[in-house]
Amino acid sequence: SRRIGNHSSDIVAYFHDEGVGNYHYGERHPMKPHRLTLTNHLVISYDLHKKMEIFQPRRATEEEIMSFHAADYIDFLKRVTPENMNNFSKVFSRYNVGDDCPVFDGMFDFCKIYSGATIDAARKLTNGSADISINWSGGLHHAKRVEASGFCYVNDIVLGIFELLTHFPRVLYVDIDIHHGDGVQEAFYTTDRVMTVSFHKYNGDFFPGTGDIDEIGSGFGKHYSLNVPLKDGIDDESYIYLFKSVMEAVINSFRPSAIVLQCGADSLGCDRLGCFNLSIKAHGECVRFIKDFKLPLLVLGGGGYTIRNVARCWTYETSILVDHEVSNDLPYNEYIDFFQPDYKLHPHLSGKVENMNTMQYIRNLRIKVLEHLRFLNG
Ligand code: ZLV
Ligand code: CA
Ligand code: ZN
Q: Which of 29, 34, 125, 324 could form a disulfide with 296 if both were Cys (CB 3.0 to 4.6 A apart)?
């Protein structure tokens, strides 16, 4: 049964698998699951685990995964290994496996772990035993029904939203990864039960190439996809202004019964693949803003390629979600060397990339995005 009346302390369920950080995409690949181990160590060193219920996630079953993905694609993910991959070379291009999405040791186990954690995290919300669920290993928003894409093989977000839809009439998906949340948008493009909103870099060329402002959904889903295309170097002030004004209007018009927030940390300044200028405080301010609507909330990871900053960011966001302020001085922990030379939670990350978003561009964008909301039902 759902708890009522208590506004000061949300029940926060935190999903972490001890082994998930040991998978390797490959030596030169930017996606480093080790960032999950690093994040978990910081969370524990700040004692934040004492403010949450900690769960070892269950592996997703093939049946659960096939509620979204095609059976032949999952059969391929299950069978292919680095040793036998030559026998499968004909279908590599069909399933988009290769450079971005390599075959690595334990790849399908890795998928079952991060997807099982997202499904379990969603289930804590549907059965009312948590107000907020966190899975930093999830948020792999590019995976499609029949293909891998952009470091993502199984779309855990779609699976998590399916679970939420068994209980909640309307689910809002919000994506602050620097890349467009194309896989989630595509999965729910024709329904009005899921509204997707992505903030991302867009110029038609930056991966995955989609997410223009005129992608708004189709059929019953028309106006239920929203895209906020940004240019290089966006700063804290412009991003927060846009995020708050757009999300406040979205939530007031769509009136979601639950929210899924993808917290890709590649939108931070100094990211190895990204080109925005956000501080960890600003990224976290978006999380706080969504939390303050007090709706059942599923919080997921995503991108993030400067791994010391990913760990800082997701630790800070965990502290926001459990409502516990943490010191800027990192507590001693066995991975402290990653955080030299400053050993702070909030290093300076801005100013590396020139801000190409003029005030005029931001104001115009806000007006155009808000225009789309006038068409929502209700
Ligand atoms: O953060 O990749 O640009 C969620 C997420 O949103 C591409 N991929 C595609 C188009 C042609 N390929 C490039 C193929 C390169 C394969 C290896 C890299 C290796 C080293 C350094 C950077 C990359 C790379 N790949 C940078 N950007 C890409 C993107 C995929 C981005 C996925 C973002 C995933 C987890
Ligand atoms: Ca995004
Ligand atoms: Zn990304």
A: 125
